[in-house]
Amino acid sequence: MGGANHPVDSSDRAFEQCTHGAMKQVYEKGQWQVLEPVMSVEINLPVEFQAPVQNNLNKRNAIILGTDSNEGYTTIYCEVPLNDMFGYSNELRSMTQGKGEFTMEYNKYCPVLPGTMQILMEEYQKQVEEDRKLKQKKKN
Q1: Domains in the chain: boundaries
Q2: Is the pTM of this model over 0.85?
Q3: Which of 14, 37, 60, 77 has its CA 20 to 30 A from that of 22?
Q4: Considering the domain 35-115 in this protein, what is its CATH number?
Q5: 99: part of which helix (H) or strand (E)?
């Protein structure tokens, strides 16, 4: 057990076949998910802009973990998929009259949302169809 072997029936070929069989089972019976990076985001902004910024974060599929307030400023702590953070810097500046700032760093990987998965599948199917048409065109 646990990789034990003995000279009678343990050979490189036996281990290769075992590995091949195990991988085949995983590919056939495994449940596959597309993962995306999720970022820890910390946003510092004046208190008067908190509501619109939180609404914008909700549109970006953010999970708000908490907030702190100190001397007229608020800090929002959240987790947001990296794909939803593109263009955020400009939006935050617009919403806070240039007074808001944020930092983000990698936190973890999580399965993509069903809507995102649907978009990825459609884009993939479109690419497969284009590749098929190109191959067909090259044949003719």
Answers
A1: 35-115
A2: no
A3: 37
A4: 3.30.70.240
A5: none
